[in-house]
Amino acid sequence: MCQNSRESINNFSLIENNLCHLQFELERGNRSYFRIAKESHQTLYRAMVEALRRNANLDITGFQTRDRTHIYKMGDEPVKTIHKTEVDGCKKAWRFSEPELCEPPKMDYNKSEIPPSSDYLIHFYDLLAMIQTEDFMKRMVYSQPVKITDNEMRSLEWLHECIRNRYEHFVPGSYSAPKRDLIDVSILCIEKSIELIYGPGDVIPSLAPENLKTLFENVRIKLNELLEEQNL
Q1: Is 95 buried (19+), middle (13-18) or exposed (0-12) by CB count in 10 A?
Q2: How does pLDDT run along the chain (232 residues), one tens digit per residue?
Q3: How many of the other CB atoms lie within 10 Å of CB of 137?
Q4: What are phi and psi of 96, to 5 degrees?
Q5: Distance CA 107, CA 105 (A)
Q6: What gap in Å lies between CA 230 and CA 63, rounded to an integer?
């Protein structure tokens, strides 16, 4: 064996890995719907990162303000601001407010404070809010914001808090969830992931592995077949 051989990974290879795990689990006779939901969650997480890091990786790492206020300008349009706002029925998931006109920010040229380290990925809920806004999605690559309803936000919060977190940080005991709900939210994650990676106006499809779209489609078809089985 070559002692200098190395394996390299990137975000696309991790998404591909998630989809391969999903495909394996979906084809098993005694499949785990919890694992299907957990892998779907991770696929969405990484798809959100990939869609947002087209902006030079400036907005997916680092500290966030408490109210998540952002002031931005798109082309020749006036300066706008957005801030964190609640989603009906959600305790932790949130989205940005509708853009409002505001005064341009004043630059403090005397500020000498060194910003804290930003070498870590921001939270799932921050990414979920960011992909729904023009500020982040259209800033450099002109991709389209993803529309997520309040009901879908509640489903994704349930997936993150009650399924993914319990799966990743399992305390010995027992836990159950309806198979239909696990399939429903898995389909939601996969469909939003496809929209993020293959949506109009983005450069991501040209960078993705050739087999990725086929993997996505195979997983989506199998999930919908499972959903039909649950409806019988």
Answers
A1: buried
A2: 566 788 888 899 999 999 999 999 999 999 999 999 999 999 999 999 988 887 667 778 876 778 899 899 888 899 999 999 999 999 999 999 999 999 988 876 665 554 555 567 889 999 999 999 999 988 766 788 999 999 999 999 999 999 998 888 887 888 899 999 999 999 999 999 999 998 876 557 777 888 999 999 999 999 999 999 988 6
A3: 24
A4: -80, 150
A5: 6
A6: 43
